[in-house]
Write a structure and sequence with these properties.
The complex is a heterotrimer. Chain A has helices at residues 23-34, 72-82, 89-109, 142-152, 225-232, 258-261, 284-295, 310-320, 327-335, 388-406, 417-432, 439-454, 460-480, 486-511, 531-534, 563-573; strands at 8-18, 40-43, 60-61, 134-135, 156-158, 161-168, 174-181, 187-197, 237-238, 247-249, 267-270, 301-304, 344-348, 361-362, 375-377, 537-543, 546-552. By secondary structure, chain A is of the alpha+beta class. In chain A, strands 1, 2, 5, 6, 7, 8 and 15 form a 7-stranded mixed β-sheet that branches. In chain A, strands 14-9-16-17 form a 4-stranded antiparallel β-sheet. Chain A has a 4-stranded antiparallel β-sheet with strand order 10-13-12-11. The chains are: A alpha+beta, B alpha+beta, C mainly alpha.
Chain lengths: 578, 77, 318
C-alpha cells in the first residue's frame, strides 16, 4: 500500500457526489429515490462508513424546526438577525420548511433522537425566542444508518479517492471531476451531467493553539478541498470574510456543547463563575463577547457544571462522552478534571471557513445550485448560514432532488483531454522530485502565518504581509514540494487547498471595509458596521486566472424584519450601557 | 537537502495479542478518516504509521477484538 | 492501466462459505463482511452462527444482526439475548432496540416471560419502539415483575402505546417502590387528559425522590390541567431548586396567576437559573402586578436573567 502506481480510469455517470460525510450520502440517496435508474457515484477521500464531521455521530440537533415548537418564518427571522442581515432568505426558509420531514426520514433510517416518555420528539427549550434543540443520546449510529441506506439504494461508492479539480465543458457547464487514489496515486476521471459538492468545512486553515496540525475543531480531513475546487471551476464563493471561530474546551479543542448541557442548566462562565454572554445564538457577536472576556481581567472562560446535581452531570457526561467527540472523557481523565468539582477551561478555536457555523461558503440558491450550471453544493461548504448537521442533511436532499430532474434535461458533456493531462502532471509533480520540502513543513508554515496575519481582530497591513508570505510558500509548493508515497501526495494536495483558502480569506477580508458579524469580521481600522455601503454579499471568484471580489445585493426578504423588531431583539440581546 | 526523521509518540496503540489483522482484518485501517493506520509487513498487526490523528475513535470503537486504544495526542494532554 | 474504482462488497455466498472455517477469527471477519453487504440475503447465514462455540463470533453476530431489521433478524437476536455469555447477551439487547419493523415483534413476545430478568427487560426494551398492541398484555404483566429493571422497561412499552385503557396500571406504577419506575410512569402519564392521571402526577410532587418530583412538575405542564396549580404552587417550596425550576416553567405555561405572590420572591434567589425561570413564568402570565419587582431585577448580574426580565416586561406592556 501507498506505493505510487501509474493508472488512469474513466467512469461516466449521471450524478457525481463528492464527499461522503453528511450532506453527500443524503444527496446521493435523494437522486436514487427520485430517479432510480440514475447512475450515481459517491466519491470519498476517506471511507463513507466513518467519514466527515460526524464520523462518530452527533449528540444533538440545535436547529430543528419542529412544528409546535418553532415556525419556519420565526427561524428564518432569527437566522437573518444572527447573521447581521446578510442572508438570502430563500434557502434558509427552504431548509426550515423541509427539515422536520428530514428528521422523520432519519428516524426511519434508524438514527435516534431523544423522545419523551411517550415516544414523541423531546424538543428542549433553550431560550425564549424559539425552541430548536433536539438531543440525540444515541446519535452514535448516524453513519452506520446512512451507510446501510446507501448500500440498499445501490449507490456506487468510491472510497479513498480525493478529487483534485472539477471539469467544465466548452459551454461552461460542469462536466465532472478528476480524482486521485490516496493509496496508489492512480487517477480516476469522472464524467458527469451534474456534480454535487459536499466536501465540508475548511477546518485546517488556522493552527490550533496546541501546535498539533491535526488537533483542529473540524475533522482534520476537511482541508477546504471543496472551496478550492469550486474556486478553480469559476464558481462564486460568498462572504468568506465571515470566518468560523468557535468556543471550545481548551487544548482538547473539541466543542464544549453548551447546547447539549444548556437545557440541563450548564453555561459558559468567566473566572468569577458568572455568565457574561449576552447573545442568544452561536454567532460572531457571541464570539466577540467571548473574546473580550478572555482578554479581560475576568478571563479566562469556563464551562460551568459544578453547580448541578451530580446525577445531572452524570446524565450530561453519558451524552458528551459517548457521541460526536467521545475522546473528551479521556481528555478530562488525563487532566484529572471533573465537571462535578470545578469549571472546565475554554478557549476559542483557530479560524476556518464553515457556513454550518457561520456564513462562509460557496454561493447557492434555494435549490443548492452554485453559479456554475450543473454544479451544486451542500453542507458546511455551501453558504446557507448556521445550518449545522441538519442543514447538511436537508440541503443535501434539496440538491439531490434537483439534480435528479436536471440530469433528464442534459446530455453527458464533453471533457477536455488536454486539461486532464495537465492536471495529472500538476498533481504528480511532487512525486517526481528526489528531494525537497515535505508537506508537513509547508502546512505548518502556512497555517502559522494564517494565525499570525489573518486571525481577527483583522488589520490591513498585517493581512497584506500574510498575502506576501502565502505567495512565497506557493512558490515553494510549485517548485520544491516532495511527496514520497501516495499518502504524502494526499497531504501535498491538501496543502494546495489550504493555501488557496488562506489566499481567499485574506482577499475577502481586505475587500469588506467595515466590521460585521462580531469577531468573525472585526476590522480594526473600520470598527463600525456600514450598512450604507456594505449591506450586501461579497462574492469572490476566479476571473481570467485572477482572484476578484464584488458586491452582490441581498435578495429581498420574504420574511420581513421590521427595524423596530430588530431594535427590540437587539435590546433583548445587548445590555444598554448606563 | 535530505529529509530527517523526527520522533513522535503516537496516540493510537494496538495490542498485538488481540489484533487479528493477520487473519485478514482491516477494520481499523478502513474506518480511519485520516488514513493513518497500516498493517505491518513485519508483524502482521495494525499500527499507527502516520502521526496525523484527530482522536475521533472509530478505530477503537469498531475494532472487533478491542485491540485498539486511542490516547489523546501528547501535545494536547 | 484500467482499474475498477468502486467498492466491491463481495458475493454473499462466497463470504458465507468462510463461516465454516475452523479459525474463529476468520468466521468473525466473515460476519463483519456479510453485515457490510447490507444485503437481506446475508441475514440467514449470519443468523446460522448464533450457536457458534466461540463467544467472540456470537458477539459479532449480535452486533451484525443489529444492522438489519425484520422477523429474521429478530429471531437471531432472540436466540442471542438468552446467551450464557453476558457480553453477547448485552450486545443482543442493544441490537434489539434498533429494530423498527412490526414483524420483528413476533419472535420477541414469548420471551417477555423468560426466566431471566435480564432477558425480560431486554425484550421489553426492544418491543417499546415497535409500538405493538400485542405487547400491551405482556407489558402489563411485567409491570408487576419482582425486578425493578423489568418494571422500568414495561412502563416504557406502555408509555409508547399511549392507551387510555392502560392508565390504571401506569397510575399504580407511579406509586412503585422503585424511584426509576416512578419516574418513567409519571413521565408516561403526560399523554392523558384524564383527571385520575393528573391526580397521580400531583401526588408524585410529594415523592421522596427529587428526580420523581422534577418529572412530575414537568409532566403537569405538558398535561395542562389547571387542577394541578395548587400542587405546583406548593412545589415552589421544594428543597431542590431543580424541582422548583420545573414547577415554575409549568406554572408559567398554565398561566397560574394565583402563584404570583410565591414566584416574586424567587426573582431574588441565589441560583440564577431559578431567577431566570421566575422571570420567564411572570412573562408568560403577563400580569402587571409583577411590574415593580421585575423592574427591580433589570440590572441583575446575570445576562440571561436580564434578557428574560426585559422580555417579560415587554409582555406586560404588549
Amino acid at each position: 500500500m501507498d506505493a505510487i502506481k501509474d493508472g488512469l480510469s474513466q467512469v461516466d455517470c449521471d450524478v457525481l457526489v463528492i464527499g461522503g460525510g453528511t450532506a453527500g450520502p443524503m444527496a446521493a440517496l435523494k437522486v436514487k429515490q427520485n430517479n432510480p435508474k440514475a447512475r450515481v457515484v459517491l466519491l470519498e477521500k476517506a471511507n463513507v462508513k466513518r467519514s466527515g464531521a460526524i464520523s462518530m455521530g452527533m449528540d444533538g440537533l440545535n436547529n430543528a424546526v419542529v412544528p409546535g415548537y418553532a415556525t419556519p418564518e420565526q427561524y428564518t427571522k432569527e437566522i437573518t438577525i444572527a447573521n447581521d442581515g446578510i442572508v438570502d432568505q430563500a434557502p434558509v426558509l427552504k431548509y426550515a420548511e423541509r427539515c422536520f420531514e428530514i428528521i422523520q426520514e432519519l428516524d426511519r433510517f434508524g438514527i435516534r433522537f431523544q423522545k419523551t416518555g411517550n415516544g414523541d420528539y423531546d424538543v428542549k427549550k433553550v431560550h425564549h425566542l424559539g425552541t430548536y434543540v433536539l438531543p440525540m443520546p444515541n446519535g452514535d449510529t448516524v453513519k452506520k444508518a446512512l451507510y446501510r441506506q446507501l448500500r440498499r439504494e445501490q449507490v456506487l461508492i468510491s472510497n479513498r479517492y480525493m478529487a483534485t479539480r472539477l471539469l467544465t465543458a466548452p459551454d461552461g457547464r460542469i462536466a465532472g471531476a478528476i480524482a486521485v487514489n490516496t493509496r496508489s496515486a492512480e487517477f480516476l476521471v469522472l464524467r458527469a451531467k451534474a456534480v454535487i459538492l459536499c466536501l465540508g468545512a475548511a477546518g485546517r486553515l488556522g493552527l490550533p493553539q496546541s501546535g498539533y496540525l491535526w488537533g483542529t475543531y473540524e475533522n482534520a480531513t476537511n482541508s477546504g478541498d471543496g472551496y478550492a475546487m469550486a474556486f478553480h471551476a469559476g464558481a462564486a464563493l460568498a462572504n468568506l470574510e465571515c470566518y468560523q471561530i468557535n468556543p471550545l474546551i481548551k487544548d482538547y479543542n473539541g466543542p464544549a456543547c453548551a447546547y447539549v448541557a444548556g437545557p440541563f442548566g450548564a453555561y459558559t462562565a468567566n473566572a468569577e463563575g458568572n455568565r457574561f454572554i449576552e447573545s442568544d445564538y452561536w454567532s460572531g457577536q457571541m464570539m466577540q463577547e467571548f473574546y473580550n472576556e478572555l482578554q479581560s481581567g475576568k478571563g479566562p472562560v469556563f464551562l460551568k457544571l459544578n453547580h448541578l446535581h451530580p446525577d445531572t452531570v452524570g446524565e450530561i457526561e453519558t451524552i458528551l462522552h459517548k457521541v460526536e467527540r467521545p475522546s473528551r472523557g479521556r481528555f478530562h481523565a488525563t487532566r484529572g478534571t471533573d465537571y462535578r468539582e470545578k469549571m472546565i477551561e475554554m478557549h476559542i478555536s483557530e479560524i476556518g471557513f464553515c457556513s454550518g457555523h457561520s456564513a462562509s461558503g460557496v454561493f447557492v440558491d434555494e435549490f443548492a445550485r452554485t453559479t456554475v450550471q450543473g454544479l451544486y453544493a451542500a453542507g458546511d461548504m455551501a453558504n446557507v448560514p448556521h445550518n449545522y448537521m441538519l442543514g447538511a442533511f436537508t440541503n443535501g436532499a434539496v440538491a439531490g432532488e434537483h439534480a435528479a430532474s436536471y440530469i433528464g434535461e442534459v446530455d453527458l458533456p464533453e471533457i477536455d483531454a488536454e486539461f486532464i493531462a495537465k492536471e495529472r502532471a500538476r498533481v504528480l509533480a511532487p512525486t517526481k522530485r528526489e528531494d525537497g520540502i515535505p508537506p508537513n513543513q509547508l502546512e505548518y508554515k502556512t497555517r502559522r502565518f494564517v494565525n499570525d496575519y489573518l486571525q481577527p481582530p483583522k488589520v490591513t497591513a498585517r493581512m497584506k504581509i500574510g498575502q506576501q508570505r502565502f505567495a512565497e510558500i506557493r512558490e515553494d509548493l510549485d517548485t520544491a514540494m516532495v511527496a514520497r508515497d501516495s499518502h504524502e501526495l494526499m497531504r501535498a494536495l491538501e496543502i494546495a487547498s489550504i493555501l488557496d483558502c488562506a489566499d481567499m480569506a485574506a482577499h475577502a477580508s481586505l475587500f469588506r471595509t467595515e466590521s460585521r458579524w462580531g469577531l468573525y469580521h472585526n476590522r480594526v481600522e473600520y470598527p463600525e458596521k456600514d450598512d450604507e455601503n456594505w449591506f450586501c454579499h461579497t462574492l469572490l471568484r476566479k476571473k481570467d486566472g485572477r482572484m476578484v471580489s464584488e458586491k452582490q445585493p441581498i435578495a429581498p426578504y420574504s420574511v420581513p424584519i421590521e427595524d423596530e423588531e430588530r431594535g427590540a431583539y437587539d435590546q433583548l440581546r445587548v445590555r444598554k450601557q448606563a | 537537502m535530505p529529509l530527517a526523521f523526527s520522533p513522535t509518540t503516537v496516540p493510537v496503540v494496538v495490542d498485538d495479542a488481540k489484533c487479528i489483522a493477520e487473519k485478514g482484518c482491516t477494520v481499523c485501517v478502513d474506518v480511519c478518516p485520516l488514513d493513518v493506520l497500516r498493517i505491518s509487513e513485519e508483524t502482521g498487526k495494525a499500527y499507527m504509521k502516520y502521526d496525523e490523528c484527530w482522536y475521533c475513535m472509530p478505530c477503537e470503537a469498531d475494532c472487533p477484538t478491542g485491540a485498539v486504544t486511542v490516547n489523546i495526542p501528547y501535545l494536547l494532554r | 492501466m484500467l482499474f475498477e474504482p468502486f467498492e466491491d462488497f463481495g458475493d454473499v455466498g462466497e463470504i458465507a462459505a468462510r463461516l465454516r472455517e475452523s479459525d474463529p477469527a476468520v468466521r468473525r471477519l466473515a460476519v463483519i463482511e456479510l453485515a457490510g453487504t447490507a444485503s437481506p440475503d446475508a441475514i440467514g447465514p449470519i443468523g446460522s452462527l448464533t450457536e457458534d462455540p466461540d463467544a467472540g463470533v456470537r458477539l459479532q453476530v449480535a452486533l451484525a444482526l443489529g444492522e438489519f431489521d425484520g422477523a429474521a433478524a429478530a429471531e437471531g437476536l432472540a436466540r442471542l439475548v438468552v446467551d450464557a455469555d453476558p457480553n453477547v447477551a448485552a450486545a443482543a439487547a442493544a441490537s434489539l432496540t434498533e429494530l423498527k419493523q412490526p414483524e420483528a415483534g413476533a419472535p420477541l413476545l414469548p420471551l417477555a416471560a423468560h426466566a431471566s430478568p435480564f432477558v425480560r427487560a431486554a425484550v421489553l426494551g426492544g418491543l417499546r419502539g415497535l409500538r405493538l398492541d400485542a405487547a400491551l398484555g405482556p407489558a402489563l404483566i411485567a409491570l408487576t415483575d419482582p425486578e425493578p429493571g423489568v418494571r422500568v422497561q414495561a412502563a416504557g412499552v406502555i408509555a409508547y402505546l399511549k392507551r387510555e385503557d392502560a392508565l390504571p396500571s401506569l397510575i399504580a406504577a407511579a406509586r412503585d417502590p422503585e424511584p426509576d419506575v416512578r419516574t418513567v410512569a409519571v413521565d408516561a402519564l403526560a399523554f392523558s387528559r384524564h383527571d385520575g392521571a393528573a391526580d397521580a402526577v400531583v401526588q408524585a410532587l410529594e415523592d421522596a425522590h427529587w428526580q420523581v418530583r422534577a418529572s412530575a412538575a414537568e409532566t403537569l405542564g405538558r398535561i395542562g390541567l389547571v387542577s394541578a396549580i395548587p400542587g405546583l404552587t406548593r412545589t415552589l417550596g421544594d428543597t431542590f431548586w431543580q424541582v422548583r425550576q420545573k414547577a415554575l416553567r409549568s406554572l408559567g405555561s398554565l398561566k397560574a396567576r394565583t402563584a404570583i405572590p410565591l414566584i416574586l420572591p424567587l426573582l431574588g434567589h441565589e441560583v440564577a437559573i431559578l431567577r431566570k425561570e421566575a422571570a420567564a413564568a411572570l412573562g408568560e402570565m403577563a400580569d402587571p402586578v409583577a411590574r415593580v419587582e421585575l423592574e427591580q431585577r433589570a440590572d441583575d448580574p446575570d445576562p440571561e436573567v436580564r434578557k428574560t426580565v426585559r422580555w417579560a416586561l415587554g409582555r406586560l406592556t404588549a
